[in-house]
Amino acid sequence: MKKVSAILVLMVALVFAASAVSAQGMMEKMSFGVKGGLSLAKGYGDDSAMGTVDASFRMAGIFGAFMNYEISEMFAIQPEVLYAMKGNKWEEGDAKIIFQMDYVDIALLGKVLIPMEGMVKPNIYVGPYVAFNIKEDYKAVAGDEEETGSIEEGFGVTTKGTDFGLVVGAGADFAVGEVGSIIIDIRFEMGFVNLFDPPEGEEDIEFKNQALFFMAGFGF
Questions:
Q1: Tens of pLDDT along 165-184?
Q2: What is the DSSP string of 121-138?
Q3: In Å, how far are 60, 176, 196, 208 from 161, measured between CA atoms?
Q4: What architecture is domain 2-219?
Q5: In whole numbers, what is the pLDDT of the chain averaged over residues?
Q6: Model pTM above 0.90
Q7: How far apart are CA 188 and CA 171, in angstroms?
Q8: Which of 17, 43, 53, 212 meets the CB 3.0–4.6 Å disulfide criterion with 88?
């Protein structure tokens, strides 16, 4: 509950920070908004397979808030706070195991704005992110039987609390009169941190996060 409260505080802080900036006469260069959508996440690395079964995508959700500041007509910076549902799935026949690992992602993106006539403003972006794990559990299903629990209890490994990596993506803003803009966002996120601490005396577990996010939202 404390971690969920921290997410809400961060999102509210973004909104209040945006309001403070606009009050200083910079509204024409700044916008903020919300977005959400689909997360397709799976692990990668030498240990991402479970036996002979390769990792596959866990389909879940992502949502959050952002602030955008246009430094020039062709460049902007965009800090974000997102609740991202990541993890992994292994599936064979009617049996599957799903690692459900949720994070608060905090990203700082550098955006290249592509000049175009009309109401559409495409962009491409890249930037680092840091992610804080707030949930980790697994679900195992075989036929009509289902088992759930923590990853540590079920698999003997401890989930690390922090991840970091790189975000690359593209998007477009569709102006809606003077009200704001509808936002489309497609991105790939790659983590650089092994997600689990191995049992004492054993080798590192080569298993990292990666995900595709498809989002839509509204900017003001």
A1: 999 999 999 999 888 999 99
A2: EEEEEEEEEEEEEEEEEE
A3: 20, 40, 9, 13
A4: Beta Barrel (2.40)
A5: 90
A6: no
A7: 12
A8: 43
